[in-house]
TrEMBL record:
This is Glycosyl transferase. InterPro entries: Glycosyltransferase_28, UDP_glucos_trans, UDPGT_MGT-like. The keyword Membrane applies. Belongs to the UDP-glycosyltransferase family. PANTHER family: STEROL 3-BETA-GLUCOSYLTRANSFERASE, STEROL 3-BETA-GLUCOSYLTRANSFERASE UGT80A2. SUPFAM superfamilies: UDP-Glycosyltransferase/glycogen phosphorylase. Keywords: Membrane, Transferase, Transmembrane, Transmembrane helix. The keyword Metal-binding does not apply.
Length: 454
């Protein structure tokens, strides 16, 4: 039996998939300490794990973001998380010394969990509650120009925070190893191989276990009339005008509507606007989804996975880059229709499209079958108990896969540049620029060829 430290950020979508896994680990006799936040205490303790509160180390702005009262840019959140790591250093040092964990399981964006594992050289398993992102799957993440500029401008500030962490024994030269997936770190992904984009490009250090769900509910869509469920999650749910448009769009349709509006919007301000609509701050989402015929969602990974697990097709309304990636994949699987705008007409037409076209429900059912046949919490627990996964031959292949393409691309351009400089001597012509044009045309095909060969 192992002693295991679990770390997570203060977000429902990152906590929820871990609870069935933790419960499975505890039931097997492992000792688990879950470093979480007071809001999740009851759920953590229900798994049998020991709850350790980290609220004292959260900044006020982090609490506001989690409550939905405020949003932050990626750079600002990165900086705040690095500062939180510094605040927690002494506390976590004492915890490691006293508990002596065999393995650390850290959320993929929980810097203090990852850095603790690295500092004390403790085997680590990364818990990835969205898709795993590498060079191939990162194509699903499309940043706006403003977001790219924010990342560029904020890099100096991030580097300053990394420099500050050196005094605590954390020696990270770049933020990238903390935020991106690699092929050497043991990683659990709560998606199936079929659902994960480019799953074949990840190493054997990855376990695609599928959704981790606490539920005995089964899909049961035999309603007297169609049930429409609307929720934008817990972080970006402060959109009362949008909910009012949804109510207006559906008030005269022969459907029942349930809206989960989050903790910021007062449900009483929306209830009574239409007889067929009921609004709540929170609901038992899995129970509602088991009966719902369509789900208008922000496409958080957790909500989207639960929707497909319950065979519920979706109207896709992503709010962030990560959510856009999840929505794109759901659309590719045929299980969702994208909401292009926020007008009453667009909302109405999108929902009715999914309700009236059976292809979306069929695709959602296919995804449900795939999800329910996955490894699930038991497979995730097996993977954690077996960590670290030592694969010297596999890791050598990974090095070749990562380094060789860059080397061959460098060779390509060296040859092209040499040819340009010697073009006149070889051909007697001054039109060396022809080589540059041809090289730029050929290069994309060359990259694809190298990727296949490697």
């Amino acid at each position: 039996m192992k002693s295991i430290m679990f770390f997570c950020i203060p977000a429902h979508g990152h906590h929820n998939p871990t609870f069935p896994v933790v419960k499975e680990l505890v039931n097997r006799g492992n000792t688990v300490r879950f470093y979480s936040f007071n809001e999740f205490k009851e759920k953590v303790e229900a798994t049998g794990a020991t709850f350790i509160s980290c609220d004292a180390y959260l900044s006020e702005v982090e609490k506001e973001v989690e409550s939905g009262e405020k949003t932050m840019s990626t750079i600002d959140m990165t900086i705040v998380d690095l500062q939180t790591t510094a605040k927690m250093d002494h506390f976590l040092h004492n915890e490691v010394e006293e508990f002596k964990p065999d393995v650390i399981v850290s959320d993929s964006v929980c810097f203090w969990g990852k850095l603790t594992a690295r500092k004390y050289k403790i085997p680590m398993v990364v818990s990835t509650t969205t898709f795993a992102f590498n060079k191939q799957s990162a194509s699903y993440m499309k940043s706006s120009f403003a977001e790219i500029m924010d990342l560029i401008k904020g890099q100096k500030r991030v580097n300053a925070e990394l420099k500050n962490l050196e005094q605590y024994g954390y020696h990270e030269k770049s933020i990238m190893p903390l935020v991106q997936n690699d092929n050497y770190t043991d990683t659990i992904v709560y998606a199936t191989e079929k659902y994960q984009p480019f799953s074949n490009t990840f190493s054997k250090h990855y376990a695609f276990v599928g959704p981790s769900v606490f539920s005995d509910y089964l899909p049961d869509k035999k309603n007297q009339r169609p049930l429409v469920y609307i929720s934008l999650g817990t972080v970006v749910s402060n959109k009362p005008d949008f909910y009012k448009k949804c109510i207006e769009a559906l008030r005269n349709e022969n459907v029942d509507v349930i809206i989960s509006c989050g903790r910021v919007v007062d449900p009483q301000s929306l209830n009574g606007l239409a007889e067929n609509v009921k609004v709540y701050s929170t609901v038992n989402q899995l129970e509602v989804l088991s009966k719902a015929n369509v789900f208008l969602t922000h496409n958080g990974m957790n909500s989207t996975s639960e929707s497909l697990y319950m065979a519920t097709p979706m109207v896709l309304f992503p709010q962030t880059n990560e959510q856009r990636a999840v929505a794109r994949r759901a659309k590719e699987m045929g299980a969702g229709f994208e909401l292009k705008g926020e007008s009453v007409t667009e909302i109405h037409d999108a929902i009715m499209e999914v309700l009236n076209n059976g292809k979306y429900a069929d695709a959602a059912m296919s995804c449900s079958d795939d999800f329910r046949s996955a490894l699930g919490p038991k497979g995730a627990a097996d993977f954690i108990e077996a960590a670290p996964h030592l694969m010297p031959k596999e890791d050598k292949k990974n090095i070749r896969r990562e380094i060789l393409p860059g080397v061959l691309q460098l060779v390509f351009w060296c040859v092209m540049i040499a040819f340009m400089f010697s073009f006149k001597a070889l051909t007697g012509s001054d039109k060396w620029w022809i080589v540059a044009i041809v090289a730029n045309v050929i290069f994309p095909f060359y990259k694809k060829l190298v990727a296949r060969l490697v």
